[in-house]
Design brief:
This protein is mainly β. Among the domains are: about 145-185, no CATH class; about 195-290, Sandwich (Immunoglobulin-like). The protein is built from 1 helix and 22 strands. A hairpin with a 2-residue loop joins β7 and β8 (about 120-125).
Length: about 290
């Protein structure tokens, strides 16, 4: 079969002829160029987790590929907010909404501590002070020699040392014993109506007994009162004290005394050289001994 000429002048070569194959190859190239030309591409998809490659998959791969990315379990711990041990509110780790928990804080007060010495303000310190403060209260140092003018009272101060008091020296030893101008000073432990007690154990009691009495029977050349008299000491002694007694009234008489105790004066009688009736007399006594 010969080549065919179309009306438009296009020549169609004889089928299976050399020209026919050449024309077919030419048309194939034209179609390949029209479709983009070149062979099939084979890009690779790389799948990563946190920057580390988990697996790959090529675009022209002939088989299926399964790539497993392990996702950890999502925990849901609870944050509990407390104030002084009491729960104010909670917030979960996987909570979907925001949470506002308000802890009320009380106002901070700021009181002032005022430090005084003998009623005079030395310094102050506030409760909300941002820095430390040292307040020094000056006291008299009795451990060294001091000069003190005027009248001073010292008590309960067993301080070793000496003080110059208006030209006289007061010395104190470690036991609290004091001397003034070389004379021993003792402190009064207790005193009251009709008695005084010193810290060294000495006690003095005194009193008056007033009576009206008459003579009884003659005693040799004297006459005794018809009754005897005694009185309790304001404070007792620990042993028999030394007692002296005498008449202290308008009537002259002698005083007999005997059988005293640690708590009571001796038994006393009024004695005169002549009989007497309704004799008013007063006996004064002093007892000296130890109370401890």
């Amino acid at each position: 079969m010969a080549s065919t000429v179309l009306p438009n002048g296009i020549i169609i070569p004889e089928k299976f002829s050399r020209d026919w194959y050449a024309d077919l190859y030419h048309n194939w190239q034209e179609l390949d160029n029209l479709l983009g030309g070149g062979g099939a591409n084979d890009g690779t998809l790389t799948i990563q987790k946190n920057g580390d490659t988990v697996g790959t998959f090529s675009a022209n791969q002939a088989t299926d590929e399964t790539i497993n990315i392990t996702v950890p379990d999502v925990n849901n711990g609870t944050l509990t907010i407390q104030k002084n041990g009491d729960t104010v509110g909670t917030f979960s780790a996987n909570q979907a909404t925001d949470e506002t928990i308000n802890i009320e804080v009380p106002d901070v007060n700021n009181g002032t501590l005022t430090i005084q010495q003998n009623g005079t303000t030395v310094d102050t310190f506030t409760a909300n002070s941002s820095s430390d403060k040292t307040v020094n209260i000056q006291c008299v140092d009795l451990t060294s020699n001091q000069t003190v003018g005027g009248i001073k009272t010292f008590s309960n101060a067993p301080v070793v040392g000496s003080i110059d008091l208006d030209g006289k020296t007061i010395d104190t030893d470690a036991n609290g014993n004091m001397t003034f101008d070389s004379h021993i000073i003792d402190t009064i432990e207790e005193q009251g109506d009709g008695y005084i007690r010193y810290s060294n154990g000495l006690q003095i009691c005194w009193g008056k007994i007033s009576r009206t009495t008459s003579s009884s029977a003659p005693w040799n050349n004297f006459y005794e009162s018809s009754e005897n008299f005694s009185e309790n000491y304001p404070k007792s002694f620990i042993s028999l004290p030394a007692v002296t007694a005498g008449s202290n009234g308008d009537e002259y008489c002698f005083i007999e005394a005997a059988k005293g105790t640690t708590t009571q004066t001796p038994i006393m009688l009024a004695t005169r050289p002549s009989e007497f009736t309704n004799l008013k007399f007063t006996i004064s006594y002093i007892a000296i001994g130890r109370w401890k």
